[in-house]
Amino acid sequence: MSTQTLAATQTPQDSSASIVGIEVRPDGIAVITLDAPGESVNTLTERFGTELKAAFDLVTQDANVTAAVLTSGKKDFVVGANIDMLKSITLAADAERLSREGALSFRAIKASKKPFVAAVHGQALGGGFELALACHAIVASDDKKTLFGLPEVQLGLLPGANGLMRVAERAGLQVALDLGLTGKNTRAAKAKKLGLVDEVAPASILLEVAVKVAKELAEGKPRARPGFKFDGPHLTQLALEKNPAGRALLFRKAREATRKKTRGHYPATERILDVLERYGDKGFDAAAELEARVFGELVVSETAHRLEDIFFATTALKKDSGVDDPQVKGQVPSKIGMLGGGLMGGGIAYVSLNAGVHVRLKDKDDEGIGRGLQYVRGILDERVKKRQLSREERDQLFARLTATTDYSGLRDAGIVIEAVFEDLALKHRILREVEAVTKEDTIFASNTSSIPIGKIAEASKRPHTVVGMHYFSPVHKMPLLEVIRTKATSPQVVASAVALGKKQGKTVIVVNDGVGFYTSRILAPYMNEAAYLLSEGVPIETLDRALVDWGWPVGPVTLLDEVGIDVAAHVGPIMLDAFGERFTPPDTMSKLVADDRKGRKNERGFYLYGKNAKGKKKAVDPSVYTTLGIEPKTGAPVLAEELQMRCSLQFVNEALRCYGEGILRTPRDGDIGAIFGLGFPPFRGGPFRYVDTIGAAEILRRTQGYYDRFGKRWEPAPLLVEMAKKGARFY
User: Fold this and answer.
1) In whole angstroms, what is the distance from residue 560 CA to residue 711 CA?
2) Which residues are registered as beta bridge partners of 339?
3) Distances from the Cα of 520 to the Cαs of 137, 261, 449, 525, 658, in angstroms?
4) In whole angstroms, what is the distance from residue 603 CA to residue 613 CA?
5) Which pLDDT band, with edges at 50, 70 and 90, does 15 fall under?
6) Residue 426 above 50 pLDDT?
7) Where in this chain does the record put each 3-hydroxyacyl-CoA dehydrogenase NAD binding domain (predicted)?
8) Those residues with Cβ within 8 angstroms of residue 76's Cβ, 6 or more apart along the chain or in another chain
9) Per-residue pLDDT at 1 exceeds 60
10) Do residues 605 and 628 lie in contact, with contact meaning Cβ atoms separated by under 8 Å?
11) Helix %, strand %, coil % for the chain, to 5?
């Protein structure tokens, strides 16, 4: 088929460098291809907007063109606005102007008499989704990688080109609230069911189907959209969205739920609610006016800057091999051995299967093997239930998992990962047994959370192959992997561990060996200080609430119940032995262990669980105070800031010690490890960004004040003292 080629913009030097290309087919359909030269993905920039407008003008003015189809020359459609561009904006007025210009361009598409159809394959996120929504119809490929979403809230922003309102137009306010406030992605089939997508077609014929839809629209044939049905969801939508009283209730409940979750730390969520409520009450234009203004305010906000910092840090880590030598390339093995079928072992096995790796799971007996297989199968079945996998795909993944109670089948494993009990003698025995049945270059990785990898490697005949791979529970949900290298670990082994972690979908940081590595070590003083506060009579719920209000996902007491009081009691002496008086705990842990309180796992902890909860959502077990021998304070309330600072500054101070001692490679890794592994509040940017924001001198002043009150455990990190003197920053 011959076509007529037009250039959206004419650049005498190199017209081939255009982002937007146009081909007019003999049937009068213009195919507009978005393909940013030299980039792996299409992102919205000012140049992109200029060229798109020029293409729109050409199409609308060309009498031979009856309709247009937008498609992408990349593996994805458009993945959103260019974050570098947004980060460079310093004035709210400039961001507001950018929002207005983008929205006007998209509104011109929607208002065009010639229909525009978006042919979407791959990701259409943020501004890319807004562009597709501005078209008269969306045809999506049925590929699993085709996703729609408005993730701006994850960067502290809201969609700035009328995307929220267009979702509400097509699918209703509740869907717009859900997509806007969560930032989650939606697959093509679900998007069609919601009314966000008009057609779903195989990727091989996506363009042809989009052209067909464009022709039908040009001929005046109406597109069938999901109509109103007298069923529960539609009647609920009618009651909540189509009348003022219902909308008021909808938004009141949404605000209550949002504030409970964000504690007011993420202003973008409030602005999303404001814009959609304005849309419901006063219409599209009034909401668009508000949207542009608040978009400008959010772009230059401190919260957006910190969340953008995290985005750039994780992007950089994706390209980081974990070693300094660019010639060293990690290798992902085709098969791994997994020792231990518990929650950690089963979780690691699952993410490895999901990475396309064959797994040989070993446990000491059939019962252990059964638990491990059942755990993996349970995760896969849940994905089938959520329609993330087909039954056939589940069975194919599960078929890659085999099990044994001996060491058979491990000879060809490239990496063997152990996740057995935290006992050095046990790990030594297992390491020797593994080396006896594997190849010379097989990597032995320990999932220990506290024992130095160097101590484990003392039992090895080939210590250069021993590395730490510290996963976080639950493995299939927690995003961080902490890779630990000893002085003997070879760069190739480190790079291979990192490569496997990335293939498993993890954000990977590499740290140097030491007791507790980075994450366990910085968490210990935080938890220790919480124990001291409890011993001083601070009520359990008061302490947990204060730290959640500061931005932690759960309070330290809740976390202790979840991790396991017995686990903490086991790790505590290891830390004390390594770091001395600074890690001296109060005697609360020993009393809890003596009372057989392990936390949620045996339904005996600080909170009530199971039958003891008697239907209560969450309540403190009052008998724990008797066990601890303390009387909770019921008089004057304890200042929340005191509780927040005493726990969080211990965390920050120890992070600085880790960097000063060379445990961390960079402050970036320290921030990512704290946020992704331990839940340090993302809007604060991590412990190192937090020091930069508050100022090293002020952090030192507060820490020194606690040192004067409480002694050795509050000794300021030498690096903090040095930076305060110099007025230095980490970034």
Assistant:
1) 24
2) 362, 418
3) 51, 26, 6, 9, 11
4) 9
5) very low
6) yes
7) 335-513
8) 41, 42, 121, 122, 123, 124, 128, 145
9) no
10) no
11) 55, 10, 35
Q: Residue 572's closest CA among 561, 562, 583, 581?
A: 583
Q: Three-state DSSP class for 70?
A: strand
In the structure encoding, which two tokens stand for residue 250, read together?
A: 């909808």
Portion of the chain with pLDDT greater than 70, in percent? 95
Our separate counts of H helices and E strands in the chain read 30, 18
- pLDDT tens, position by position, 260-308: 999 999 999 999 999 999 999 999 999 999 999 999 999 999 999 999 9
Give pLDDT tens digits for 625-656: 999 999 998 876 789 999 999 999 999 999 99
Residue 152 DSSP symbol:
G
The CA dihedral of 442, 447, 452, 458, to the nearest 10 degrees, is -30
Strands 137-141 and 199-201: parallel
Instruction: Find out whether 405 and 363 touch, Cβ atoms under 8 Å.
Output: yes
Among residues 291, 418, 435, 482, the one annotated as catalytic is 482
User: Chain-centre distance of CA 556, in angstroms?
Assistant: 21
Give one DSSP letter per residue of 679-731, joined into a string.
---GGGT-HHHHHHHH-HHHHHHHHHHHHHHH-GGGPPPHHHHHHHHHT----
Helical axes 267-282 vs 244-262, angle rounded to 10°: 180
Burial class of residue 479, CB neighbours in 10 A (0-12, 13-18, 19+): middle
Structure tokens that stand for 492 in this block? 């190739």
Residue with tokens 């100022």: 695
Q: Name which of 288, 76, 78, 56 is nearest 166 in CA terms.
A: 288
Whether 482 is catalytic is yes
Query: What are the backbone angles phi and psi of residue 445, rounded to the nearest 5°?
Result: -115, 135
Q: Which residues contact 211 (CB under 8 A, 6 or more apart)?
A: 25, 27, 29, 31, 69, 117
**Tokens of residue 383, six digits:** 């994905």
Asked if residues 138 and 150 have their Cβ atoms less than 8 Å apart, the reply is: no
